[in-house]
Write a structure and sequence with these properties.
Blueprint: E1 19-22, E2 27-30, H1 62-70, E3 83-89, E4 93-94, E5 105-106, H2 109-119, E6 123-126, H3 131-139, H4 142-150, E7 154-159
Parallel strand pairs: 3-6, 3-7, 4-5
Antiparallel strand pairs: 1-2
Length: 162
């Protein structure tokens, strides 16, 4: 059993998958040799006193949760990823699924800036692919602008009006 105490005098543990029971379960045949010390971890040998278990600022994955649990941490202080908003504006921009007209380009900024933010560890959300609407909000509708900014920690406002 994983984590079970080792009997006095034992100096190695063999995986049960590498054994075969003989004679009415009274004799066990080892299918592979076992070197001294195999699968034995001395209590407290994983880490020394004062050593850091996990570094601050990392994303905790399932394996790290197991490490925290093994050291008795039922709760840990965590922070959340910053929430980044992208507000691309400009009369020359159209949504990526639209065909640009004369003096227009497709809006790639909402996607590229958001992707860079996510690569850096943030949560990103573009506000809209309607760049003309975004421009009206940013320049004229201050209440809507405040509402958009309320649920984001950081905003990138990209303006390229012609």
């Amino acid at each position: 059993m994983t984590g079970a105490p080792v009997p006095v005098g034992a100096d190695a543990v063999q995986q049960v998958e590498l054994t075969h029971e003989l004679k009415d379960n009274t004799v066990v045949e080892l299918l592979q040799s076992v070197e001294q010390g195999r699968s034995i971890v001395r209590r407290g040998s994983e880490i020394t006193a004062g050593e850091t278990v996990l570094q601050p600022g990392i994303s905790i994955n399932p394996a790290m949760l197991a490490v925290l649990a093994s050291f008795g941490y039922a709760q840990v202080e965590v922070g959340r990823k910053p929430r980044v908003g992208v507000l691309a504006t400009g009369s020359e921009l159209v949504a990526v699924d639209q065909t640009p007209g004369q003096d227009q380009i497709r809006d790639s900024n909402n996607f590229s800036i958001g992707a860079y933010a996510e690569r850096a560890g943030a949560l990103s959300r573009a506000t809209s692919t309607d760049c003309r609407r975004n421009e009206r909000i940013e320049k004229h509708d201050h209440e809507s602008s405040r509402n958009l900014r309320r649920d984001r920690d950081v905003w990138w406002s990209l303006d390229g009006c012609l």
